[in-house]
Prior knowledge:
By secondary structure, this protein is an alpha+beta fold. It has one helix at about 30-45, and strands spanning about 5-10, 15-20, 25-30, 50. The protein has a domain at about 5-50. The chain is built from one helix and four strands; from the N terminus they run βββαβ. It has a four-stranded mixed beta sheet, covered by helices on one side.
Amino acid sequence: MNDGDVVTMSKRGQWVNRVIGGEELSESFRSREEAVEAGRSLALQLGSKHVVLESEETGVITDEGEASL
């Protein structure tokens, strides 16, 4: 992937759009469908490529600050 490409992926129970080399443009969404649609639109605006990394939805949003047992 190149700078400016948009990647849609699951991260800690949420779906996120990450812009390679432009983290300030990254966003998170509750559903895969919302994230894919927004990622596709953002990539079109940026004139870049959109990639969806497939992952199972867990339905659980976790906080990386949670203590692990």
